[in-house]
Design goal:
The structure holds two protein chains of two kinds. Chain A is α/β, with parallel strands linked by helices. Chain A is built from 20 helices and 16 strands. In chain A, strand 7, helix 10 and strand 8 form a beta-alpha-beta unit. In chain B, 45% of the residues lie in helices and 12% in strands. The longest helix of chain B is centred in the N-terminal third of the chain and has 12 residues. Classes of the chains: A alpha/beta, B alpha+beta.
């Protein structure tokens, strides 16, 4: 009997380690021979810990499992109180288009044999037979855009680094996934670390870089441990000739998710944002040409090289090609990772896939794209998931996070939190961000206290303009998004008298 | 038990990371892991070894939320305060806990048992609210769950 118990952070945080031990001891007690595989999570987090049992029909799922549910695993499986049927048939999973996350939850994350049996290293093998320019061209043709949030075409970045002349070039992976409501980087690293390693090795071949760093946040201890082990395994198996990879642990600074602050941090300095130009592609880590990409961009590359740029570009809409691992979180019934081609609407994601709120109350707002992303109200749920469509509504896709709030949430409080967070995390280099965030917080305090609401609201909007256009990076530049969107959508939460409905 | 400051042990740790490119952060992490916090002696030694000014090392130590310049309690409870956890009521749970412990954010109980800190996102956002006790993660923590977790650390 083969039983799968996930080992990713969510499952472990919900007791998966104890569950695995309980299954082993229960099996021993009954004299049943079981092999327990610690797979990665499928990303169906509301069902975690999701235990899977291999049957003739496929892998049957049971979740969310507790230790009390363990004995029943050895009886009639169909009658198990936590049975959810065949995992592959769960609509949340069946509706997805998993290109990047295709192996997540299926394989043992640290089994090289498992990885190779599921098309692993096919992309790298193909890349080895290609000219560097052809690899860059394939990534360009796939339409892949930076999945960290900026959406810059990945292939063009690579091409720039490839054309730069230097003794040493670097591949840096931004795994400083600090946005609340996002966990895709964590999931791929914990569930399929070889995929990221392969993507980085391909990037190395494409631009002529022999060193790769993964800057991984310290809040993800399990991901750090798993990726370090995976790098050792891949290196010892001889899969990374001429490419030395290393994981570097962050130190709790959100701003280090900004690429130039990250580079400074890697160099051992304070994580201060650099002015651009020069761009990192020409003068990046230690002043050398550097590809700096988000985990998801690099993890998308093996598929592109294995199946071809056209296969990837065939998904999506407009200038947003391929798939996006959307992360549905917060007050939501079915929270998890949903990888899908661009173009699905926000409403489908929240209501149909996410199943509405966990509390059962109406959805009030959804914050898309992390702490620097705009709020959307249900009236905007027809917005298609697409970089340009979100931008047209003064929002951003960012790193793909969606945080759902029910009608009990006070949006003035959330706007204040956005400013407070910016003040807490500002690197301090530019004035709009450093001073503006604190002044924004104070002004919101006045508004919330009912002090000169109209005047202070105007001051706040003006301040947001300054921050948006005057900040050096996205931290100060995008903090206005949640603030202004909350102001526009929920004026009543800011003590304003609601405007009478406009005449139709 | 966290060992007391020991200059030769500290030098040994620093030496271990010197071959790295940009060794500052790995060194500081390792020193803090060993001694619990980064004291002035550590800063002096790192500055000397890396041939940078003490101000530069101090600048790095004070920039990052992870690095501490004073010891904390025997256990550290980091409670997530980011948006996804807030959407599930984390702030109310946390303030009740802090009140019952008589602490503010960052405070340590008088018996030195527990320090409560804030953290912005543990990546468990689909199973909020979440927290980390020392190195262990916990999710779907309601008010009772959080209280029990804080009580567990002795």
């Amino acid at each position: 009997m083969r039983i799968f118990v996930p080992r990713d952070s969510v499952s472990v945080a919900l007791g998966a380690d104890k569950l695995a031990a309980a299954i082993a001891s229960q099996a021993a007690e009954r004299g049943v021979e079981v092999s327990i595989v610690r797979n990665g999570s499928r990303g169906l987090f509301w069902l975690e810990p999701l235990v899977e049992v291999e049957t003739a029909q496929g892998r049957a799922g049971f979740g969310p499992m507790t230790q009390a549910d363990v004995p029943a695993l050895f009886g009639d499986l169909a009658a198990h109180p936590k049975a959810v049927g065949l995992v592959e048939e769960i609509p949340f999973l069946a509706k997805q288009q998993r290109l990047t996350f295709s192996r997540c939850g299926i394989t043992d994350p640290l089994s090289l044999a498992d990885y190779q049996a599921h098309d692993g290293f096919k992309g790298l093998e193909n890349a080895r037979g290609m000219e560097p320019a052809a690899i860059c061209a394939a990534v360009k043709d796939s339409g892949l855009r930076g999945r960290g949030g900026a959406g810059f075409p990945t292939g063009i970045k690579w091409e720039t680094v490839r054309n730069a002349k230097a003794e040493q070039k670097y591949i840096v992976c931004n795994a400083d996934e600090g946005d609340s409501g996002t966990f895709a980087d964590r999931l791929i690293i914990e569930a399929d670390p070889f995929c990221l390693i392969e993507g980085m090795a391909i990037a190395g071949l494409a631009v002529g870089a022999t060193r790769g760093y993964v800057y991984l946040r310290s809040e993800y201890p399990l991901a750090i441990q798993i990726l370090r082990e995976a790098i050792v395994i891949a290196t010892q198996a001889g899969l990374l000739p001429n490419f030395a990879m290393e994981v570097r642990e962050g130190a709790g600074a959100y701003v280090c998710g900004e690429e130039t602050a990250l580079l400074d941090s890697l160099e051992g300095k304070r994580g201060m944002v650099r002015a651009k130009p020069p761009i990192p592609a020409l003068q990046g880590l230690f002043g050398q040409p550097t590809v700096i990409n988000n985990v998801l961009s690099l993890a998308a590359v093996p598929y592109i090289l294995a199946e071809g740029a056209a296969a990837y570009a065939a998904c999506g809409m407009g200038r947003s090609r391929g798939t996006m691992p959307v992360q549905i979180a917060g007050n939501v019934k079915h929270g998890g990772l949903f990888e899908i081609a661009f173009g699905i609407t926000l409403g489908e994601l929240i209501n149909d896939i996410g199943g509405g709120t966990a509390s059962g109350r109406p959805v009030k707002a959804v914050q898309a794209g992390g702490p620097l992303g705009a709020y959307f109200a249900p009236s905007q749920f027809d917005t298609p998931y697409d970089y340009e469509a979100f931008a047209a509504r003064d929002g951003l896709i960012g790193h793909g996070g969606l945080v759902v709030f029910d009608d009990t949430m006070d949006m003035a409080h959330m706007a204040r939190f956005a400013m407070e967070f910016c003040a807490h995390e500002s690197c301090g280099k530019c004035t709009p961000c450093r001073i503006g965030s604190t002044r924004g917080m104070e002004t919101l305090d006045k508004i919330m206290a009912g002090e000169k609401v109209a005047q202070n609201t105007e001051i706040l909007r003006d301040l947001c303009e300054t921050m948006k256009f005057g900040s050096l990076c996205a931290l100060g530049g995008f903090t206005p998004y949640p603030v202004v969107s909350a102001l526009n959508l929920f004026p009543e939460d800011f003590g304003a008298t609601p405007l009478p409905a406009a005449a139709e | 038990m966290t060992p007391l400051w020991d200059a030769s042990r500290a030098a040994e740790i620093i030496a271990q990371y010197l071959p790295l490119e940009g060794p500052m952060l790995p060194i500081l992490h390792a020193l803090q892991e060993e001694f619990g916090y980064i004291n002035d002696d550590s800063i002096r030694l790192v500055a000397q070894t890396l041939n940078v000014s003490r101000a530069e090392v101090y600048g790095v130590v004070s920039f990052y939320h992870d690095f501490r310049q004073a010891p904390h309690g025997r256990h550290v409870l980091k409670i997530c305060r980011a948006e996804a956890c807030q959407s599930m009521g984390s702030e109310a749970n946390a303030s009740k806990l802090l009140q019952s412990l008589g602490l503010d954010w960052g405070g340590t109980t008088p018996d030195g048992r527990l320090t409560v800190e804030s953290v912005y996102c543990l990546g468990l956002c689909a199973c909020a609210p979440s927290a980390m006790l020392d190195h262990d993660l916990h999710a779907r923590l309601d008010e009772q769950g959080l209280k029990a977790l804080a009580g567990e650390a002795v």
